[in-house]
Amino acid sequence: MTTAQPPSGAHPEPRTPSPQDFVDMQATPEFQELKKRLRGFVFPMAAFFLIWYAVYVLLGAYAHDFMATTVFGNINVGLLLGLAQFVTTFAITGIYVKFANRELDPRAAKIREELEGPLT
Length: 120
Known about the structure:
The protein has helices spanning 19-26, 29-62, 64-67, 77-116; strands at residues 70-72, 75-76. The chain is mainly α and 120 residues long. It has one domain (29-116). The longest helix is centred in the C-terminal third of the chain and has 40 residues, at 77-116. The chain crosses the membrane at residues 41-63, 75-97. Residues 1-23 are annotated as: Disordered. InterPro entries: DUF485.
């Protein structure tokens, strides 16, 4: 009885890492660097956005006259700051995607390749 060999040039099946492989990988400098870079981006960006959102809510609750200041036509400061919340959300998302593509994904792919073998 013969075992089927993959055609020449075909990629081997990825191996399935054991739970211990994952634990061991978490202790490596590569994984620690990946985690450090992720946290270095996410925590400051989350803090920025939460502070920005809290300022908006507090202005809405306590600075009625300021938020009601007409900028032009029926558009007031409160409406512009509310719309800026959406703009900020989309901007942060775009910035994160660029950051992840440049900094996180290559490192994560390298770690995955170490665990599972070459990607097909």
